[in-house]
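A quick aside before the break. I want you to see a complete sequence-to-structure record at least once, exactly as it would be stored in a machine-readable document. Don't worry about memorizing anything.
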Amino acid sequence: MTFSLEIRAEFFALVCAGMPLAKAAELVGVSAWSATMWWQQSGVMGLNPLPGKPGGLSGSAPLACPGTGTRRRALTSEDRAVIAAGLDAGWSYRRIGRWIGRDVSVVSREVERNRGRDGSYVGAVAHRTAHEQRRRPKVFKLVENSALCRRIEGWMDEGWSPKLIALMLAAEHPAGSMERVSYETIYQALYVQTRGRLRADLHKQLSLKRSQRKTRGSHGRGGSPYVEAFRISQRPAEVEDRAVPGHWEGDLILGTGNASAVGTLVERSTRFTILLHLPGRHDADSVAEAMIKEMSQLPEHLRRSITWDRGGELAAYQQIQVKLGAPVFFCDPYSPWQRGTNENTNRLLRFWLKKSTDLSVHGADDLKQIADTLNRRPRPTLDLQTPAQRMNQLLTQAA
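That is the input. The structure line, written in tokens, reads:
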């Protein structure tokens, strides 16, 4: 036997108002079996009818209009009744939105969020479900999902930032998944231990090693003047927009007491990193020798220019220019931000090359392994590709 939409709507309105399922079925003239099937097909999570018992819905309470007194008006039961009637009549979301005075996106989200398991939208059921969802306490994901905590810990143990982790989870899982968290959620779990189940010492894996949040500051650096050297303002425009590969930025990462150092070179378009092994000394001749050795292995079109900070370690820049066929440009005094790609990379490298430590303990093989690990890390600026993948594409195109 087929029942009209009006009978179904009346049945759902009675149940959502608190009437027992069996009593509501009797009043509208349908069997208890049919009524149960209607509820199972159109019911939404969070609503548990109790047939034959007073109150109808488990945990039900008088249904007040949600959203009263708020800046953004919540949908009312009347709004949802219009949405249901409009859908039954074949109206578009935009037309329904005009009738209730709401944007089409509000109608779209409402239908997707509160439709039944059979795909239908019943106004009374949707309104009750929305009410229950609004008053249900939200569980912090990193308290509930221990497997996700272990995965985040594993990535952070490899030096990944919370923002990169959040982007990778978003790329792997659909919106609304319990396997997705924002980077703010991760930071909250790191800095407020009661907010999650991440290891209490995991904040030490952050690049700044801080146990609590602080306002970010900056410090200038001094350098040696280079009267005859190319200035950063003389670099070609192609360097700025990263459209042409082969432009590098470099600097030294210094160990405790400036007694040891590792040279870093980063290609601007791919973020590919090369580390220079500087055993014993990091004077101008040593840095020039190490740089020429490493960059000579690149094809000519991938060594178009080098940008460096004004430091005495690159006093032999003319020798580098001749051997590599690449001009060396120098930043303005006290302006390390002008080679921001290298600065950001050095910050990532501090995960392995820690401050106030003796960097000479890292041999050439150790530095190669560190560079390979960083080059295999996906980057948001590369659409989650890795620097190694981008560099391989360039090398393949040139072959």
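Two observations worth writing down. The chain has 17 helices and six strands. The first strand starts at residue 230 and ends at 231. We'll return to this after the break.
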